[in-house]
Amino acid sequence: MRRLLVGIVCAAAVSGGAVAAPSQPWRDARLSPDRRAELLLRRMSLDEQIALLHGHFPVLMKAPLPGAPRSAGFIAGQPKFGIPAITESDASLGVANAGRDSDDAAPLPSGVALAATFSPALAFDSGAMIGREARQKGFNVLLAGGGNLARDPRNGRNFEYLGEDPLLGGTLDGAAIRGIQSNHIVSTAKHFALNDQETGRQVLSANIGEAALRESDLLEFEIAIRDGRPGSVMCSYNRLNGIYACENPWLLTDVLKRDWGYAGWVMSDWGAVHSLAAAKAGLDQESGTEIDKQVFFDGPLKAAVKDGEVPAAKVHEMAHRVLRGLFAEGVFDHPLAPGGLDTAADSRVSERVAEQGAVLLKNAGGVLPLAARAGKIVVIGGHADIGVISGGGSSQVIPKGSVRMPPPKGAPAWGGGVVYHPSAPLAAIRARAHGEVAYVDGADPAAAAALAKGADVAIVFATQWSSEGVDTRLNLGEGQDALIAGVAAANPHTIVVLETGNPVLMPWLDKVAGVLEAWYPGALGGEAIGKLLFGEIDASGRLPISFPKREDQLPRPELPGLKSAMPEGGATAQPEPPFDVAYAEGSDVGYRWYAAKDLKPLFPFGYGLSYTAFRYGGLKTLGGQGLGVSFTVTNTGARAGIETPQLYLARGPHRTQQRLLGFTRVALKPGESHRVTLTADPRLLADWDVAGHRWKRDAGRYEVFVGPDAADAALKGEAVLAAATLAP
Ligand code: BGC
């Protein structure tokens, strides 16, 4: 009887969250997460606490663990305390299906496509969508969006990240995290920090000065963590200034936990723990222990406590952070209820990202939109008859109907090849075209050119695969440049649709009429491309990453760690021995580098065409304690469209550095004007003062500009600001 009563009281506590069984006071959702964690920890033995601090990698386990989905991470629950099992899934671009063949989760477009929307609202919606799917699929911790800055346009994981700017990336990352966590599950910010290339990621040391780091990669995380409050943060594989990120006390304890007041837990990347020093440095949880040399955060940690080498209070603090994170997001109070997935509705969220994130880079003579053209269309290459390409690695989502192709020559097959999501651009074009639509795969460039010759329009689909564990080349590869050049020579109305994870060089740019960068467009990517090509919606994406003209424009023309020329399929694997990457450009990442060196990229950060035109006017600036601007944007064209005005710092009183200070999206009908106000984020007006350990803004004159991209100062202004300091 007594047992039955306890069961009833506990059930009430779990479902409503407000009533606690007297014996389990931590179940009372009215108490603070910290208080609840403490109440629970009082009852837990050292072994029970340590059980929270290391996780399995179910995909690699021969015998499945009871209750563990086949995914990236699992820690068994402790039912006697009501601690739920921690079920982790990768989710940079949707709930990933590690080890499964096909699935009902909706794949999002690449992160860089999301960044190209410049839309925190859409970032929230896509986070909310994958968070909902995660609950429905039985996951309560998502190893979600990466926030690494695109320091190198060849980083093979840029497609999972949010571009090269700390304000844009951090703001969108924060919004996506909030979206995920709105489902009472935990989101993770990763990979902390400076895992900015894949070549040698487990051995390289990313070397950079403190101020430069705080003003760039760390600023992205600072903004994301401040805005999103993720329950967990994942430390990265690489060393930072010589010390592994997961055992770097400066990074994990001084910056993250002390300076930023981060209250959640730090988990390691899979296989990124090398010693118990990690616990002392600030790592709270060792992930994916099946691939570690040793499970450091189990027996060895217990022995270190017994020997007095690690204080018991340290283990208590580590377990506190894990429990606190779970309590804070409501994981205890809102148990998972698997089932009820609506893939079609979720795919529509993905489609909105693809629609708003594709960037129209060239549109000579108004070749697009195609709606008005009645003649024959020839579609060439890129497996446009099958679907749209996606990125590989742990973030891979493989929906039902996907088609796998072998990876390009020389590239490793991570997760079974190159996955095409089943949304064929060819079908979307056929559904909209007025005349005949022919298709050739482009394997025979001469035949493709001959077919293009007689057509009104030729659309070449060009793809480049990226994957975790591999960096990319700047060339499209696989003979696609020659294919495009040949088709363009045969037909002046040649349009190139790029499906790439990274910027690519375009030796044929002058010869083609149109270029649309569609990135990896996800679940309904083909449909989104069709709508954009035919002008059913405006082209409104803007580049979140600069496109270089040539490799020699980059801070490091050659990718560090490469032992020989990069093979066709990209650089592979983990070179030994360890090597250094000197980030000598400091915080001059991306467009800041081009501005500092007075270089003209192929396409600048922020750039993208619309099907209409906009005029900027009437800039007013406001200085004093903060910087604000107002200005008018007018749609001067004949169609409705969306503009993304951007506010940049050009020069401060004592330092010249271009910085994005603010941005927004404005939808305007033909002839319509809108008065836009933007306020600069205070951290972006300040420099990091190493000696004073704070953000410091000098008094004086700040030159700013407003425009459609980082290289177009449509309106220039200045403001006089008072000196200010800001705590980290
Ligand atoms: C990746 C992480 C991922 C983890 C688990 C690692 O290889 O770097 O992003 O979350 O695997 O799959």
Describe the structure.
There is one protein chain. The protein is an alpha/beta fold and 728 residues long. It folds into four domains: 1-30, no CATH class; 41-328, Alpha-Beta Barrel (TIM Barrel); 354-533, Glycoside hydrolase family 3 C-terminal domain (Rossmann fold), CATH 3.40.50; 614-726, Immunoglobulin-like (Sandwich). The protein is built from 19 helices and 33 strands. Strands 1-2-3-4-6-9 form a six-stranded mixed β-sheet. A six-stranded mixed β-sheet has the order 10-19-18-16-11-15, sandwiched between helices. Strands 8-7-5-21 form a four-stranded mixed β-sheet, with no helix packed on it. β22 and β23 (628-635) form a beta hairpin. α2 crosses α12, α5 (120-137) runs parallel beside α6 and α15 packs parallel to α16 (480-490). Residues 72, 90, 143, 190, 269-270, 394 line the site of beta-D-glucopyranose (BGC).
Quick overview of this protein structure:
The chain has 4 domains: 1-30, no CATH class; 41-328, Glycoside hydrolase, family 3, N-terminal domain (TIM Barrel); 354-533, Glycoside hydrolase family 3 C-terminal domain (Rossmann fold); 614-726, Immunoglobulin-like, CATH 2.60.40.
List the bound ligands: beta-D-glucopyranose
Number of helices: 19
Cα-based radius of gyration, to the nearest Å: 26 Å
Overall pLDDT, averaged? 94
CATH fold category name of the largest domain: TIM Barrel
Beta strand count = 33
Keywords for this entry:
single chain, 728 residues, alpha/beta, TIM Barrel, Rossmann fold, 6-stranded mixed β-sheet, 19 helices, globular, disordered N terminus, binds beta-D-glucopyranose
